[in-house]
Design goal:
It is a single chain. The chain has 471 residues and is mostly helical. Helices cover 60% and strands 3% of the residues. A 3-stranded parallel β-sheet has the order 2-1-3, with helices on one face. Helix 1 packs parallel to helix 18, helix 10 packs parallel to helix 12 and helix 11 runs antiparallel to helix 15. The termini are far apart. The C terminus is likely disordered.
Length: 471
Amino acid sequence: MLILALIAVVVGYLPTLDAPLFSDDYIYLNASRRLSFAHYARLSFTPWSHEPLLPFTRDFWRPLSFLYFEAMRPLFGGHVLPYHLVNLAVHLAGVVLVWVLARRLDARPVVAGVAVLVFALYPGSTEAISWISSINSAGLPFALACWLLFLVATKESQTRWILLAGSTACLAIALMFRETAATVVVPVGLWYLLVQRRGALREFATYKPLLPMAALLLGYYLIRTRLFSEPAANPDIYGFDSKFDNHWWYYIRNTLLPFRDPVTGWRVGAQDVSGVVFLALLMLTLATRKWGAFALLLSIPIAVVPSSAALLGVGQRYFYFTTPLLALALGLLLADARDALGRRVSARLLASTPSLVAAVLFAGFGTYIAFDRNDHWEEIGPDREQAWVDELRAEYPTLPAGGTLYCIHVPLVLVVFEAANLLPTVQWLYPDIGAAVWVPDDKLPPLPGPNDRIFIADDGLLLGRDTTAQK
C-alpha cells in the first residue's frame, strides 16, 4: 500500500513539475537576490520585522521557510523543476511518516493502508504541495515525527525523556516552518490521554510528558510576541470576528467533500450534508467509545481554528496539516467496520486480493483527481501569470534602469492586496527597474518620463521591439 501510494503521488503531481513561478514565489526570490544573507536572515528570525521586499516577516514567523529561498536561490535560480521536486519530496516524506505512524497507532494493516492512500491523494491539499511558496508545508513531516517520537517515548510506563526531547525538538523545527504545526499537539495530547493513559487520568504523573510541549509553545508565544511587546498575530491578518463561524464551517464541510472551487449547484448542499455527517460521526465515536477515532476526529475541528481566524479568507490548502488526522481516523473506522463485517461474512470474502483490488481502484481514481486538479490549478494560476510575463518580456526585452513601468490589463493575482506581487515580479525580470505601478483599466497612466514605459497587456503591440511606434 505504501509503494502504491508513493507511485500514485508521483503520477498525480506530474503536471506541477513544470509549473511556472507564481504569485508569492517572486517575492521570496526577489528578496533573496536583493538582500544580503545577513540582513535576510535577521529579518527571517526577527518577529515583526519590517522590510518592504519581504513583507511576510511582519505577519508570520516562519524563519526556516523564509531562509529556504535564501539558500536555494543561488542553486536553483529561476528554474522551477528543482523547487517542485523539493516540495514533492516533502509530501512523499509525509506519506511515509503517515504510514509509520498508522502502524504505530494500530497494528491492523487496514489502518495503515487506508490512511496512507487518503493522505497521499487527498484532493484538497494539492496546492500545499504544487505551489513553490508552499515550502512551509515542510513543517508537517517534522510534526509527524514529533508525534512518532512521543508515542515511542511514552509507550512504556516509564517515560523515555531523551526521546521526548527529540519529539519536542521536531515540534520546534515544524513551528519554524509554519505556525499551524502547533495543532499537532491536539491529537498528540488527546490520543495520549484518551487511548494511552485513559485509566490514569487522575494521576498527576500522567501529564508530565506533555510539559515539554507546553513549555515549547509558551516559549514560541514569547518569541512571537517579543516578550509581550507585540500582538501574538497581526490583527489585520488574524482575528475572531463575525467571519469566523463561516470560515470554521467551510473547513468542516470540506473535510469529507473537498470539491474544487468555486463550489456551485448541488455540490453546495452535498458539502453541507457532509459537514453534518462529519459531526455526527464524531458524536457516534464518542457514544460507542471508540476512543482512538474520537480523539482524531475531535482534533480536526480544533486544528482548523487558526485557519478559520484568518481574516484574508479560507482555502483548502490550509487543511494540509489536518489531513493526516482525517486519514488516520478513516483508517481506524474502516478497520473497525471490516472487523465487524468479518464476524458475519466468510473470511474468504475479506481476503487480501479483493482488498488490494479496491486499493488499486481507489489509488487510480485518486491519482486522476489529483492530476486533474493540479493541471487545472496550473492553467488558471501559474500559466496565466506566465502568459503575462511572456508578453511583457516579448514587448520589452530590456527596461531602462531606474524607470517606472506602468502596467494596464494586469492579471488578478498581481493586483490583489494593493498589487503587492506586481513589483517583485517585474523586479525579478528586470533587476534595475525603479518601480512598477498598476494602472486600473478605468484610469489613465501619468505622462511617462524618459525612462518610464507603459505596458498594456493583450493590446497586440510590441513597443519594445518597434522603435518607431515607441517614439
